[in-house]
Amino acid sequence: MKKLLFISSILLGAYLQAQVGINTATPTATLDVNGDARIRKTDSITTAPKYVLTPDTDGNIRKVNVNKIKSNDHTAINSKVIILVNRSEPQRLAVRDTEYNVTYDGSITGINTNLITLNSAKDRINLPPNRNFKITGYIGVKGSQSTASKNAPGYISTLFQAGGDAKTIVSTRGYTESSTETWDDGGVTPPIIILSTGANPSYVELKARFGSSAASYWLSGAATTDTVGTYLLIEEL
């Protein structure tokens, strides 16, 4: 009887050490669940944990130090989209009080630039899915390039418009005056949008219009030591 109990205990120990699969005949971990898992009751904690559990790209549950997922950690920052999208040449706004899409013919620099693309017209920013973004527009005024009205005072107002599967959370209108403005009615305010993208394609456009006595107005191109530029700062939250 003692021998039987001894052999049973060995076999039971070996069984408990084996890999167990649920909905899979070839488990690759001590417990391999091919499907959803549900815990009906968990206890609350009163102090911040040092570790949290999260799946990796293969679905394996790992413990991660919470300091590694804080926004000020360099590994977390490097996984986010932080990009500057630039204009190169000036863009003409030909007709007063008409909305134009701001185009971006310059460089795209920053972190994870491969996740941001432009359409063929370069006036639509395509955003990656299931993320949150803050986008700030910086608009420079070049003024009219015609000789007769080169120094005509004027302003450009701007507003972001999200489309596709993007959901706008908040959005502000931007306003930029020319350096020759002769009255005090706004100064400079950058347009801002905070949005979330869904599983389907999402994008954002920046609309611009001008008000001036000039025949046409121009957005600045690239920034230099003498002039401000036109660009977008895209920050993943």
Major sheet summary line? 11 strands, antiparallel
Number of strands: 17
The backbone outline, from C-alpha atoms, is elongated
Please report which band the strand proportion falls in: under 5%, 5-15%, 15-25%, 25-35%, 35-45% or over 45%: 35-45%
Percentage of residues assigned to helices: under 10%
List unreliable stretches of 5+ residues. Answer: none
Q: How many DSSP H or I helices?
A: 2
Can you tell me the CATH topology of the largest domain?
A: Jelly Rolls
- Report the end-to-end length measured between terminal Cα atoms: 66 Å
Number of domains: 2
Order of helices and strands: HEEEEHEEEEEEEEEEEEE
SS-derived structural category: mainly beta
Gyration radius from CA atoms, angstroms: 28 Å
The overall pLDDT, averaged over residues, is: 83
| The first-level CATH class name of the largest domain | Mainly Beta
Describe this entry's structure for a reader.
With 237 residues, this protein is mainly beta. The protein has two domains: 49-79, no CATH class; 81-236, Sandwich (Jelly Rolls), CATH 2.60.120. Helices cover 9% and strands 41% of the residues. The chain is built from two helices and 17 strands. The strands form four sheets. Strands 5, 7, 8, 9, 10, 11, 12, 13, 14, 15 and 17 form an eleven-stranded antiparallel beta sheet that branches. A hairpin with a 5-residue loop joins β3 and β4 (61-65). The longest helix is centred in the N-terminal third of the chain and has 16 residues, at 2-17. The relative contact order is 0.19. The model has no long low-confidence stretch (mean pLDDT 83).
